Amino acid sequence: MKDLIASKPGVKRLGIMGGTFDPIHYGHLVTAEAARTRFRLDQVVFVPSGRPPHKTGGTTDASDRLVMTQMAIVTNPGFSLSDIEAKREGYSYSIDTVREFFDIYGPELELFFITGADAILGIPTWKDAADLLNMCTFIAASRPGFDLAELNKLPLAWLERIRLFEIPALAISSTDIRRRVKNGDSIKYLLPEPVEHYILRYGLYREEG
Fold first, then answer.
1. Over the stretch 92-116, which tens digit does the pLDDT of each residue have?
2. What is the 3-state secondary structure (H, E, C) of the chain?
3. Which residue of 13, 51, 108, 140 has the lowest C-beta tally within 10 Å?
4. CATH number of 13-172: 3.30.565.10, 3.20.20.140, 3.40.50.620, 3.40.1170.60?
């Protein structure tokens, strides 16, 4: 897998799309593209996690998740892939990733962290959460019907660093895709065809617990 962490010329507004991507699906891709265009990002880099601290249960091997992510984003020149977290020893903390991107691109970088609005609710439990919110703007994508009032529980200073927008395609979930594979149900049209073929070819998720 080619290392794509190197600084890209001309990138001043960079989006980080983090997650396990187990597997990546159209909800992730639609969210990333909507964030890229709405917030005028020069690039969105997908960063599959290595060992996420808040994830219960195991994840598919990082090498498989990296390959599937690359398959899914290869046709979009506004997307790129980094294995920065997959290669890191120990837990994958977002603050460490953000600091490393600033080391690579320099202090003038405007960094945007793209995630789900539901994940934002748990941000008080993230490592160095206050520092993280000072270093980047959070783009929080929500499903239709998501109760945004829950976000008011966060400190006002944090809310000022969060931008919300609704993405209908977030109704698709990796958990549901894994369940479908285990049950022998179709996953067609939920994710890019090359990713579907990869899952079926290598028998991923058939033994999902």
1. 899 999 999 999 999 999 999 999 8
2. CCCCCCCCCCCCEEEEEEECCCCCCHHHHHHHHHHHHHCCCCEEEEEECCCCCCCCCCCCCHHHHHHHHHHHHCCCCCEEECCCCCCCCCCCCHHHHHHHHHHHHCCCCEEEEEEEHHHHCCHHHCCCHHHHHHHCEEEEEECCCCCHHHHHHCCHHHHCCEEEEECHHHHCCHHHHHHHHHHCCCCECCECHHHHHHHHHHCCCCCCC
3. 108
4. 3.40.50.620
